Amino acid sequence: MVHNSVCTFHNLTVHLLHEVRVIIFNGRQIRFTPIEYHLMRYLLTERPVSDKELVEDIFHSELDMWNREALNKHIGNVRRKLKKSGSHLSILRVATFGYILVPNDERH
Q1: What are phi and psi of 19, to 5 degrees?
Q2: How far is the C-alpha of 50 from the C-alpha of 43, rounded, in Å?
């Protein structure tokens, strides 16, 4: 049995299929790796998320150059999947702080 949850992200209904790590945005399904799915769940909070917070929770480690590099790699993979799916969502870098997920029409 697959457990689901539904949330709203910038007036967009989002379905999360936890056991199979699929997120559905406006009928577009995107399958993620475990780390990518965990990242997306953080980014769906509609707030900037710090590198430190992401690394500590996802990698269970302290932020260092190796973990930052791994985080950047996974963020890049998620960005490609969002673009390929046509989801109209983008992950933006917030200066030296971290990341935020936004609809493309809100990019600056």
Answers
A1: -65, -25
A2: 10
